Amino acid sequence: MSLVYWIVLLVAVILGLAAGGYFFQHKLIYFPESELVATPADIGMEFEDVRFETRDGVQLHGWFVPAMERELVVLFCHGNAGNISQRLETIEVFHNLGLSVFIFDYRGFGQSQGGAPSEQDTYRDARAAWNYLQENKQIAPENILLWGRSLGGPIAAAMAKENNPGGLVLESTFTSLTEVGEKIYPFLPVRRFSKYRYPTREFLQDTSCPVLIMHSSEDELIAYSFGQELFDTAKEPKRFLEMRGGHNEGHLVSGEDYTGAVKGFVSELVEDGSN
User: Fold this and answer.
1) Calpha distance 62→42 (Å, rounded)
2) Given CB 3.0 to 4.6 Å as the disulfide criterion, which of 3, 88, 197, 241 pairs with 214?
3) By the 8 A CB rule, do 125 and 117 touch?
4) Which residues, at least 6 apart from 240, have a Cβ–Cβ distance to it below 8 Å?
């Protein structure tokens, strides 16, 4: 067979992959699970089961886990898979540090209503969670610590840009989803076909609150360099923690380094009079 034949075949395969990726992007990004496998009560923590509504009328579900030591509340934006019931170890870390936690599921995840979300939907959902804390819990913006892990990073960063929180934590996240796609699929025209941007770096450029970036040098999904680039982008005051372990276990493997970094960051917020 001629060289022309193989070139045409290769182009056809690449275009086919690009087309498939374009029309089924949501299936490559979101992996929701509806069943809640546990609650904070299973690890001995009191909590409030919360239902709240977005501006476009979707009812979302979350948990508010109160703590008595500090006024600071963590608004936690989780990653692209599972649901809030698979983040109990994270809730426990916050709780042990004296931080209240509000964790919620995006539409289509857990007990939140709605179908598969879009990028804009996840921003709407986080905005509704922020509004719930302010309007229903009377939490002042400076007492809210926005926290985004993995895909939750750009969502938390978007909220930090829109509002003026006490602080922002970006854990195991990326500069933009487009750049992740380009790194994984260098042979595809990702930027041209991508419907999902999640531009964390852009949001971070317009954020003025204190920032903590945490990323593992052993992360097999989101390159360590993305965390370094986000740290370079963030304005002072800022901190960086190099974690250990894979993408989904860095916060566990890093142990005392992780909790120590969070404790130090929170202490600085308190000392600076943010809450």
Assistant:
1) 16
2) 241
3) yes
4) 212, 213, 214, 215, 227, 228, 231
177 by DSSP, 3-state: which? Answer: helix
Residue 102 and residue 77 in contact, taking contact as beta carbons nearer than 8 Å = no
Residue in 123, 232, 119 with CA at minimum distance from that of residue 178: 119
User: Based on the number of CB atoms within 10 Å of its own CB, is 271 exposed (0-12), middle (13-18) or buried (19 or more)?
Assistant: exposed
Q: State how far the Cα of 174 lies from the Cα of 177, in Å rounded to an integer.
A: 7
Contact by Cβ (8 Å): 227, 213:
yes
**Residues 168, 138 contacting (CB under 8 angstroms):** no
Alpha helices in 24-74 (DSSP H): 25-29
- The verdict on pTM exceeding 0.70 is yes
pLDDT, tens digit (0-9, with 9 covering 90-100), for 25-47: 666 789 999 999 999 999 999 99
Asked, as a colleague might, if the bond just before 189 is cis with ω within 30 of 0, I would say: no
| 155: DSSP letter | H
Sign of the C-alpha dihedral, residues 49, 256, 175, 275?
A: positive
The pair of structure tokens assigned to 190 is 């990702």
Residue 160, CA distances (Å) to 26, 141, 211, 253, 271 in order: 25, 10, 10, 28, 20
Using DSSP, state whether 269 is helix, strand or coil: helix
Tokens in use for 243? 């974690």
Residue numbers in the chain where pLDDT is lower than 70: 1-27, 69-70, 184-193, 273-275
Rounded to an integer, what distance in angstroms lies between the CA atom of residue 131 and that of residue 128? 5
